[in-house]
């Protein structure tokens, strides 16, 4: 007869507990489950970051300067959140639908996150590529409304064509961004006169006419070498491995990029929604994707090559023309694109790191973060103040925050206008786009997408 004592039962229970743990728990633990998806994507979506991640809702009186009044304002605004380009839409409607199937069949995601994938479907068609979306219109509307709150005392209440100049590039997204901004600024009833939008605007989108930049930089594979190197780094391999495991099939770097972009656009489109594609990332892997974006834009639109930002002299010549000519409109607002904002940022020496951005410097702290500096709706504007002592002072606002102008005295956010002008004298005097951009071997090989 077998008598079971406590000393027999306890080890038995321990073995049983271990077996159920090893058989059951790892299955659950093996399923990827992200707790805080909004936290993971916040300000990490590169140039597809929605403006709400970087906006400054504080409209208290930062815009007043003692003893001075606002003389002129000149600013560049990137359009608001838009739809993706055709190639990303193609991925959404093709590759991602296939990956969705893999995830539902073999994916290692926890139950409630799989449910989001069950409901997902591509929402846009090729015909809607790059159009401004509702969120994008709202971003610009809110920007206009906050502009009114900050500068209301210095701005005429009603639109006056002699006082205001609003201009957009020849794209739907820039046009509707301008229209939404002016609505936020004046209310709904003003009839704004917009000048004819130019296909090649030498001020608003100067680089589109710069053949030398296009061929030597933008279309040159060498400009993408740091991004490519980072693409084969151990960090990126880890991202691919993690995503492949979570999806249940091997994914290529291109597919990972399409997933990141879809996560970014779907996040930007609607604050209330969570894109299931974002759930595949953890903090480290999204930071890796973000760095890849930073490398790309650093080398094609930023500090990588001098010609890239030298061309922006064309926009800043317009600023000086406007500020130095009493007859020109007091308030100038240009609605444009990522490429203009980034090149202008580099022209001004803003967010410049000591070392060029490279694949191997991933772990270094950096200033160049396109998620922060070039989100949808990004804005860069200068305010010129006339002061009672006869001097003029200039202030720069980036993303609605007073920002120190590189080259101006360190101890203050305001800069004497003459001092500021001297920083740029040579570059403005030598600003000749025709000479700067002429290249013997035209035309460009790639089709120019608007
Ligand atoms: O049109 C796009 O795909 C990107 C790049 O345009 P460029 O920098 O080439 O003008 O800019 P976005 O319109 O998103 O600001």
From TrEMBL:
Subcellular location: Cell membrane
Pfam families (UniProt xref): His_Phos_2
Alphabetized UniProt keyword annotations: Cell membrane, Disulfide bond, Glycoprotein, Hydrolase, Membrane, Signal
Reactions the enzyme catalyzes: 1D-myo-inositol hexakisphosphate + H2O = 1D-myo-inositol 1,2,4,5,6-pentakisphosphate + phosphate; (2R)-2,3-bisphosphoglycerate + H2O = (2R)-2-phosphoglycerate + phosphate; 1D-myo-inositol 1,2,5,6-tetrakisphosphate + H2O = 1D-myo-inositol 1,2,6-trisphosphate + phosphate; 1D-myo-inositol 1,2,4,5,6-pentakisphosphate + H2O = 1D-myo-inositol 1,2,5,6-tetrakisphosphate + phosphate
Keyword Transferase belongs to the record: no
SUPFAM superfamilies from the UniProt entry: Phosphoglycerate mutase-like
EC number(s) reported in the record: 3.1.3.62, 3.1.3.80
Similarity annotation: Belongs to the histidine acid phosphatase family. MINPP1 subfamily.
The name this protein goes by in its record: Multiple inositol polyphosphate phosphatase 1
